[in-house]
Amino acid sequence: MLYRRIAPLDFIDSGLRALPTDPDELNVQRILGYVGSAYWRLLSNEARRELATRLESVLRTGLAGARTTSLKAAYFSTLRHVASGTETIEFLERIWRRQESVPGLKLSENDESALALELAVREVPAWSEILENQLERIRNPDRRDRFAFVMPALSADAATRDRFFASLSDATNRRHEPWVLDGVAYLHHPLRAVESRRYIRPSLDLVREIQRTGDIFFPKRWLDATLNGHNSHTAAATVREFLDSQADYPVRLRQIILQSADPLFRASAILTSR
């Protein structure tokens, strides 16, 4: 698929056909991961809309029929990750509100927090209330602070998201690196890819400073969080233009950027070749 020998829709179709028949839980979890990744990375918005009903039906059937708690959790996590249909989003919101439950699956505080974030990025009508209420539900102080840090990146208001991104230019606001990565990943969620393309170039401009002020692995993780939500030719061109304009750029950082951008380059090539 990545070398354009198999179309992403055919790849996803094979996964959806395999899920109900594969008896091995590890295989099912791997297939779910592949399907979710290909869905967001390698399909156009139109192709996602056309596939959504079937995809969500397969996942909800798998969730209902899963024999173990771990398998139910895997199906639920994938459903939460890819949900786009109104019926499925309303189902997830009822679960978050504790009006409905999944038999055999008890959600943890972390599960509910992740669900609240996914509902917010989909801009359900009560997205702000959901975030505020989830913040109140969290009892662990560190997890509460982390959730509060990420919340502005989920806002439906573009100006709020702009302020969140701008704040990251200050190294003191990057000291909790896992929090930053969560926020940046949601800032660049595929559902907001068009709006968040404007953050790509300034994010690349920050890489040298991030290397200087952060953990040794932070530049790569920063770039992954920035680029993983994108698949457009425009986003890929932004990365290439940055590299072309930096003749004296450190070799190691150039290689890190190319490594993080490789899935983006492949995805944009696949989408533009059709």
Defining traits:
mainly alpha, 274 residues, 0% strand
Radius of gyration, rounded?
19 Å
The coarse silhouette is globular
Helix content: over 70%
Main sheet properties: none
Task: Give the termini separation.
Answer: 13 Å
Average pLDDT number: 96
Secondary structure category:
mainly alpha
User: Low-confidence parts, pLDDT < 50 over ≥5 residues?
Assistant: none
Strand percentage:
under 5%
The SSE order reads HHHHHHHHHHHHHHHH
Count of discrete structural domains: 3
Beta strand count: 0
Number of helices, counting only DSSP H or I runs of 4 residues or more: 16
What does this structure look like?
- The chain has 274 residues and is an all-alpha fold.
- The chain folds into three domains: 1-100; 108-154, no CATH class; 157-274.
- It is built from 16 helices and no strands.
- It has helices at residues 8-18, 25-42, 45-65, 69-82, 86-96, 109-121, 127-137, 141-154, 158-167, 177-187, 193-196, 200-205, 207-213, 218-227, 233-244, 251-272.
- Helix 13 packs antiparallel against helix 14.
- It is globular, with a radius of gyration of 19 Å.
- The two termini are 13 Å apart.
Quick summary of this structure?
The chain has 274 residues and is mainly α. 71% of the residues lie in helices and 0% in strands.
What is the topological layout?
Layout: H1 8-18, H2 25-42, H3 45-65, H4 69-82, H5 86-96, H6 109-121, H7 127-137, H8 141-154, H9 158-167, H10 177-187, H11 193-196, H12 200-205, H13 207-213, H14 218-227, H15 233-244, H16 251-272
Helix pairs in contact: 1-2, 2-4, 3-4, 5-6, 6-7, 8-10, 10-14, 13-14, 14-16, 15-16
